[in-house]
TrEMBL record:
MF terms in GO: oxidoreductase activity
PANTHER family, sorted: FAD-DEPENDENT OXIDOREDUCTASE DOMAIN-CONTAINING PROTEIN 1, SARCOSINE DEHYDROGENASE-RELATED
Protein name: FAD-binding oxidoreductase
GO cellular component, one term: cytoplasm
Gene3D superfamilies, per database record: D-Amino Acid Oxidase, subunit A, domain 2, FAD/NAD(P)-binding domain
Keywords tagged on the record: Membrane, Oxidoreductase, Transmembrane, Transmembrane helix
Superkingdom classification of source: Bacteria
One Pfam family cited in the UniProt record for this chain: DAO
Transmembrane segments: 16-34
Length: 386
């Protein structure tokens, strides 16, 4: 943190109402909802040369409307409505393809899903419970021995992340938001407990509201501000892509996962993608795939869906899913530094929940409260002992 001496913050740099640090999906959706609410004077600062370079550009792009945590489930439901039916003129093409999600479970996980299924149904989620033989009839490459049952979620599917990110940004910019890439925030200026701007490699920018949307670097940015000390854990996740067997038409397949045996796979650009659902903790970084994890993925395909065993790989990549200590989102004003806001800890759901999270975060920043959800469960103050 850089403590400004009296008046210093008011002298240097261009002035904005709100500065957002980071242009992944969190920063972009927030900019959209802030400008929708009339905050035209928004500056988004992104260290990389393009938005979405880190986690946002590396996701599996799924909407899965299942979550046993009520607060997250509520955000998923609200976001699903936006993704299925965005506001008129929001995007040029549909944001969601709906081939569905097909998820296999074994043991206690299956018992839990069976118990929760009526609740999901009552909440409006279309959900089919399938026995192992019904599941194999639906997806013949899977084997009944690796599951006690499966669910099919016909209204879920694949999000056009690029379309979503750039639609948020296009509308925000049309309403006056300014996006600057290649600009790294290096200091947060705080004057008598109140945020007053940032220092970057491109100079100083003044604002009394600064938002930390820095993804895996959220903890680093929090420390720069002298804000609540929240230990985020970025966890690496790996994806490989490869050709489908020539005699299988996989194009219309749903996304398929076995949560108990930890593998997901599904159609991707005419072929297939797969992930071992790895979660190795790491420092914030430009994540790269680990050869051992790639080998593990192939072994798991061989065991669970041998028909799909890749002969060679087309691409492989890794990205970070970043979690707070209690695994829940961190959204709202910092308890120690006035005007410093968090929108962080999106874990593995940042794309699919971005409409609802961006919207209630904008309420908190503009109004100090929201009536859309109980935002107290996400408040950064929960990590501070008073
Ligand atoms: C393999 C994988 C699969 C996933 N699958 C899904 C899925 O199916 N569905 C789903 O909803 N989610 C999924 N996720 C999770 C999702 O991608 C993330 O939750 C989401 O992208 C987080 O967005 P973000 O904006 O917080 O972070 P990011 O996209 O990482 O953006 C943060 C930005 O902050 C910038 N930044 C950091 N420090 C500074 C600084 N000092 N100055 C300026 N800029 C800075 C970074 O450069 C970065 O661009 C997946 C993630 C991975 C890795």
């Amino acid at each position: 943190m850089k403590h400004a001496s009296k008046g210093e913050c008011m002298r240097n740099g261009d002035s904005f109402e709100i500065i957002i640090i980071g242009c992944g999906i969190a920063g972009a959706s927030l900019a959209y909802f802030l400008t929708e609410r009339g905050a035209g004077d928004v500056l988004i600062l992104e260290r990389e040369e393009q938005p979405g370079y880190h986690s946002t550009g590396r996701s599996a792009a799924r909407l899965v409307t299942l979550d046993p945590v009520p607060s997250m489930f509520q955000l998923l439901l609200a976001s699903a409505s936006f993704l299925r039916e965005p506001p008129a003129g929001f995007s040029d093409s549909p944001l969601l393809e709906q081939p569905g999600n097909f998820i296999m479970f074994q043991g206690p996980m299956w018992d839990m899903i069976k118990e929760l299924a009526p609740f999901y149904e009552q909440s409006g989620v279309a959900i089919e419970l399938l026995s192992p033989s019904q599941a194999v009839n639906r997806i013949p490459v899977v084997s009944p021995e690796h599951m006690d049952g499966a669910v099919f979620l016909p209204n879920d599917g694949h999000i056009d992340v690029h379309g979503l990110l750039w639609s948020y940004l296009r509308h925000a910019r049309q309403k006056g938001a300014d996006l600057r890439c290649g600009v790294e925030v290096q200091e947060i200026r705080v004057e008598r407990g109140q945020c007053c701007g940032v220092t970057t490699n491109a100079g100083e920018f003044r604002a009394r509201k600064v938002v930390n949307a820095a993804g895996a670097w959220a903890g680093v940015i929090g420390k720069l501000a002298g804000a609540a000390n929240i230990e985020f854990t970025p966890k690496r996740r790996t994806i490989i892509t490869f050709d489908a067997p020539a005699d299988l038409d996989v194009k219309g397949w749903p996304h398929i996962a076995n949560y108990s045996h930890r593998l997901f796979f599904g159609p991707e650009s005419g072929g297939l993608l797969a992930s071992p659902m790895d979660e190795d903790p790491t420092e914030p970084c430009d994540a790269r795939p680990d050869d051992l994890v790639v080998a593990q993925t192939i072994e798991r395909i061989e065991k669970l869906v041998p028909r799909l065993l890749p002969r060679s790989l087309k691409r492989k990549w890794a990205g970070l899913r970043t979690y707070s200590p209690d695994l829940d989102l961190v959204v709202g004003e910092d308890p120690l530094v006035r005007g410093f806001y968090w929108i962080a800890g999106h874990g593995g759901s940042g794309i699919e929940t971005s409409p609802a999270v961006g919207q209630f975060a904008a309420d908190l920043i503009m109004e100090g409260s929201t009536d859309r959800i109980d935002a107290s469960v996400f408040a950064p103050g929960r990590f501070v002992n008073r």
